[in-house]
Amino acid sequence: MTVSSPLFTDLYQLTMMQGYHAHGLHREEAVFDLYFRKPPFRGGFAVWAGLEPALDLLEGLHFSEDDLAYLDSLGLFRPDFLDALRGWRFRGRVTAFREGSVVFPHEPLLTVKAPLWEAQLVETALLNVLNFQTLVATKAARCVLAAEASPYGGQIVEFGARRAQGPDGAVSAARAAFVGGAVGTSNVESGRLFGLPLTGTHAHAWVESFPDELTAFRAYAALYPDATTLLLDTVDTLRSGLPNALKVARELRAAGHELRGVRLDSGDLAYLSCRIRAALDEAGFPEVKIVASNDLSESVIASVIAEGGRVDVYGVGTQLATAGGEGGGALGGVFKLAQLGGVPKMKLTGDPAKSSLPGEKRVWRAADGDGTFALDVLTLGEKPRAGQQVSDPTNPLRSSRLPEGLTWADAREVVLEDGRRTGPAETLGEAQARARADLARLPAGTRRPLNPHLYRVSLGEDVAALRDRIAGELRAHLGA
Amino acid sequence: MTVSSPLFTDLYQLTMMQGYHAHGLHREEAVFDLYFRKPPFRGGFAVWAGLEPALDLLEGLHFSEDDLAYLDSLGLFRPDFLDALRGWRFRGRVTAFREGSVVFPHEPLLTVKAPLWEAQLVETALLNVLNFQTLVATKAARCVLAAEASPYGGQIVEFGARRAQGPDGAVSAARAAFVGGAVGTSNVESGRLFGLPLTGTHAHAWVESFPDELTAFRAYAALYPDATTLLLDTVDTLRSGLPNALKVARELRAAGHELRGVRLDSGDLAYLSCRIRAALDEAGFPEVKIVASNDLSESVIASVIAEGGRVDVYGVGTQLATAGGEGGGALGGVFKLAQLGGVPKMKLTGDPAKSSLPGEKRVWRAADGDGTFALDVLTLGEKPRAGQQVSDPTNPLRSSRLPEGLTWADAREVVLEDGRRTGPAETLGEAQARARADLARLPAGTRRPLNPHLYRVSLGEDVAALRDRIAGELRAHLGA
């Protein structure tokens, strides 16, 4: 995969690296924070994903002779710099949320503390991997929450390889969707790479390849008597697909097997799934699952359920694999310098919302008495205490005092030290379980898909004071 | 890259392959058409891209012993089928538009004629590669058309790796953006893989790593005296960035060099670019380019130009690499069976817009006297003639007669025969030149970014008659 190449980076990272090297700044200890400013999909949270692949990347990064020869060919790099890249590796510390954690705007999700030229190089690749996987895991979680709102339950499977943004986009999406709660994928390569459960039915072309639909259904069931899901809409869902599927279900049962499911891929999914559920139940097949596809999203799923639909498994394709929909498509995560050589740093810019937060910060998460998450607070280290003043990261006028009765936890862990993992990589099952547990601890208003209650991420007094001091110095320097 | 794996496919392609094999259908000659139903971005056209990578994929596809072992582990596949996959390769013919061609809904962009089990396997990977690259090339073309509308001209560079959907998403996007008219990319790996021009400036972190902005600018210019573009907004664009950049421009000139450019990354790009252009011109630096970034898209570019902005180079990131915006994110290309064993096939479904077009079709493109594209017509082979009746693919009631005076060309070529390319792979430069030429031949109304005139793709009488006959037979079978 391309991402293991140190050249998977923006050109300016390399020209700056050479510059740091030339000015003797390259070994200055830098602290960079990775964070986003707005939750995706106009929602209230994100599900953090992609950490383990990002750590794989950091552990494996090195410059091959081919890499150096290509850089040399660009005419921008001096021999002493290219020499210095031989034997280069990432030796930093990474502190991060574990995958599957529910996370919020403005808090550092991952902090790199490393020699400046190491931290600078990895920005592009870290953002690429973490932005996308977090986006897809969040989309999957939103679909799962929508499906589970049905009184009958419902599962999500990822179906989107053919519309995904490149092959790796498909594979990374299948991985991240699983973290967010999808139970499987249709993509075989994703199954192999990550051990994900595979799922599949058959296509319209299968039906068209036989003299008629019933013959096609029988042929498929004969081959996969315990794993057949029949696609109903090649000719006509209710008039042809359904009666033919019922015939095959009876024939399978007579032979000691059970039809696994039927799939709807067009038409009114709420109406059709009700009609089909009733027909299946009446015919004695209450265990046959109804799988639905056709440009699904969390809002389509919610609408199917609101109208009483009886879908058991939602095959979510394009919208999941590309994390589409309003506020989707990309997560705007950034990677900003917070400290260099022990000196806190920030960029001001013309837009206050794009200012960064200086200093080496810790993220504390508070839970109330029943375990529900209450708020997160960033400090320069100390655990927050009741009565302390905290303020909004983008609006200093909004401040409040921390209440009593909260339980505080350090929300992140050191996951890489001297460029090596501090422990074994987590499994995707662990990440998925964490997402499920964290989502259950979200305030209900924050879990809401649209117009959510915005979960509070606040600055401790120390961070706020540091920011105000540095911003003041920068403005003073301007004579403003 | 994952896409070279035959397992980069949906599970059902493999279960169907086994089924075709078991029923002796696998060697039946199948014809599948790849097409889309709606242009992306609510526009009037798409720029076809990704063909050469798709052909690489088809030429290289084979099952390794590892692949077979994984399939065996799934418990779905029989030894005789897995044996048959040893030595399997794609032996079909592919007829397609060349990359960079401007294409429209409902016309077959690529047709696979191959033994059924070969055509079935490749569906997922072909759609993945071609959907995404066509989407991005189209987005790039829209940005290029927007930028070139300025009286001063303007260029597009691709900047989006950090927000792209996976590393391969970034790399494929850089390639496709170049086909659509972008002049370069910031991503080094994309540059290496495809020989694309690389472009870059420096980041805010560079400025923050020095005692002050001027020192940082000087340090960068000293290293890259002929390739320096200075980022102006770390502190304050007009009060700090601009005067410091002017100082460095003068110093460079005194030393026999020229500052290449300045970059804006926040604020009002129209206003700032005018102010900065005036200041640069007044100071004797009319050749210094103004580069702008900050969540650009074709509509933002158009708005900057409409307000008199003076940007020379637009660095388009997220919106280009993820092909975002309304009607973006994914191209809904599909791959549908049109003929099997010489017998035309179609699927009806409940939704007429989702019906497929039967038969082995040829795509003819007509140009009028000045070379402007007039309409495309699908026939079963014959060249269209003036006076013939043609009809709309989705609405049979809309029909007309072909006018005199059109020049007809067969729009596609046989690019693969017996699974091997019929000639050398085209270069990206050729594809980019074709896109430029084709875009210039589009009717102006169709080139319009929003509410375009819909270019006409029509069915010849033979295709329309075939479709009506088969649809009639399918409905008769239903007793409808």
Question: How would you characterize this protein structure?
Answer:
Chains A, B: It catalyses: 5-phospho-alpha-D-ribose 1-diphosphate + nicotinate + ATP + H2O = nicotinate beta-D-ribonucleotide + ADP + phosphate + diphosphate. Two copies of one chain form a homodimer. With 480 residues, chain A is of the alpha/beta class. Chain A folds into two domains: 254 residues, nicotinate phosphoribosyltransferase; 184 residues, TIM Barrel (Alpha-Beta Barrel). Chain A is 39% helix and 18% strand. Chain A is built from 16 helices and 21 strands. In chain A, helix 2 packs antiparallel against helix 5 and helix 5 packs parallel to helix 12. The model of chain A has no long low-confidence stretch (mean pLDDT 95). Chains A and B meet through helix 1, helix 5, helix 6, helix 7 and helix 8 of A and helix 1, helix 5, helix 6, helix 7 and helix 8 of B.
